[in-house]
């Protein structure tokens, strides 16, 4: 059974529709056949019952009283219509007021419940065959004959059954023809419905492998959902490809100079014989190596953010938890023990719909910039203002001048004298994270003094702000 289900799930839509139509026709055919046969039997019974009743009335009308006796002259017309069923046997019986048979077959027995009833029908047997009988009464009130006479006319059921089967057969013929027509129509409709899918497939096959621009194919409204999903997927893929290209470009750009410098310093160290100069060269190599290590950390951080920006599952995140996590990791205590760092979070939840590791990575970069280039004390926190929520790193310095401030957040921006050792990737990473989750990166001097870098978002629950 599971194998059949698996094969059915992998079968074509045309086969599925054909199977569904066939199943519908089979079930519908059985129901229609049963209903047609029931209707046919009822129609045949009604038609032949009228013939029986007409024949019985015709015979009853021919009974007369002469000399105190009932006289009967059977008319041929009474049996002419019943003779239209040549394979059926016909029987009759006329019972006098005293219960004796005046003429006809004594084998025709009237059921007990019908002996005192007036006109009607009953089923019985006639020489071993199932038969249907009509009974008609005629009352006489003569001085010489007073009482009720019963006229019974019956016929076997072969013609009735034949008529019922014929009606059923005709209904089945109509059903079969209709079924073929429905199957043909369903095939045409399915092929017509699937034609847009072939158009989409043809458009994708004809594309250049590097072309990730949106599909612009005219398709029905129902298929447009697939186009939208494909375009959204290609947009995400395009962003990932662009991010990978930027990452490779950033890596090549950033590593070329420090690696070349290290190689040059190593060559100088190999050729230098003076111990003092060798020691100074070794110190420069160590300084360059530390700078290269920090650069690699930022490049790996950027790769993490790029990867998680489109692929990570988003969830409700409390920005207070992000600030607390970055603060409690305590990297600043090891790298910058001389600078005081504090935590500032409130009691009210600050929810956003984002990826917690990406937010934490961005806040670490903001804190790292504040530790490197700002003045103590430094505050890491989360807060809300004017319908927005944000996490931030704030130092007591004045920050860069407005012209330099406008350049911050761009890759490789290190135009300020205090930032000559940086690559500009830290703020670029923070900016990417903010944009990925519908937020912004704000860099501004504070009215009460100090410079703050913040990731600002619209809250996931506006009522909480």
TrEMBL record:
Cellular compartment(s): Membrane
Limits of the HAMP domain: 191-242
Keywords, ordered alphabetically: Kinase, Membrane, Phosphoprotein, Transferase, Transmembrane, Transmembrane helix, Two-component regulatory system
Primary location: membrane
Domain of life: Bacteria
InterPro entries: 2CSK_N, HAMP_dom, HATPase_C_sf, HATPase_dom, His_kinase_dom, HisK_dim/P_dom, HisK_dim/P_sf, TCS_sensor_his_kinase
Enzyme Commission number: 2.7.13.3
Residue ranges of domain Histidine kinase in the record: 250-461
Broad EC category: transferase
TM annotation in the entry: 17-40, 171-190
Descriptive protein name: histidine kinase
Known catalytic reactions: ATP + protein L-histidine = ADP + protein N-phospho-L-histidine
Gene Ontology terms: cellular component: plasma membrane
Keyword Transferase: yes
Molecular function terms from GO: phosphorelay sensor kinase activity
